[in-house]
Specification:
single chain, 324 residues, alpha/beta, 7-stranded mixed β-sheet, 3-stranded mixed β-sheet, 10 helices, 18% strand, globular
Amino acid sequence: MLIARKAAPALAAGCSIIIRPSREAPGSAMLIVDCMQQAGLPAGVVNLVIGETAATYAPIMASPNVRKVSLTGSTPVGQQMIRDGAATLKRCTMELGGNAPVIVFDDVDMEAVLDLCVPVKYANAGQVCVTGDRFYVHEKLHDGFVAGFAKRAKAMRLGHGLDEGTHMGPVINQRRLDAMEAIVADAVKCGGTINAGGKRPAGQNKGFFFEPTVISNIPDYAKALAEENFGPIAAITPFRTADEVFARANSSEMGLASYVFTRDQKRQREAVSRIEAGMVGINSFALAAAEAPFGGIKASGMGREGGTESIHDYMNVKLAQIAV
């Protein structure tokens, strides 16, 4: 999907493209390129580059023939690409990190909201840039929400992703495991409560598994709330007023996705207006669609993928004035 969002508008605009996937997961890119070649694209229109960063990244960024780069990745990598592309004035589309707030007001059906939140949070072991990281729950619902989230998290079955009955698989590598343990350790240091998970599962010595985790009673500066965890950790904190929660939601340097659950239509419109993010989901996590512009603001990036907006960055505006 990430590659399709970039390749489709580029090809539609008439550009040739170079696809450079993560070397940790190049298989899907290979299949997509193979499909495009079988579809009859001329040789050289779609190119695939795989290998070590030192050998593949620098030549692409240094070449004046490459006029635009589009990245899905972390904010530090995106910042470096912008710097490297400046020498040849490359146009950039950056879909970078997220730290999505999920705001739950007190007028909702709490059980229905939990039934939506828990599977989405732990999909792909939480390794999704638009997944909810920070759950701001009205103080009237907070304790029940934490208990319900933890109960559902504890009931999830970890295992091979293709096995029937598996709810969540592993994270991608050892670095993610180390990051999860550091976030939990920081939460405990900040006085937080581990309501579910918080460690590697007992008996799982193979693969990079980490338990679905729920953390509460932590301050806003704790890593679980202040940073993108990109893993199976849900941090839950109470709020009292709308003004308070919108301010806390906007305190992050990230601004990719955000979600609000409320039945109040006035509050729904207020949330769309006040939340500083490229995308706002109201009573829904369904933000990504081919016909919709996908992307963030602030440290979450620039430009849009999807929708009619996505093709513009692959085209040049030209003015022609002919005097008769």
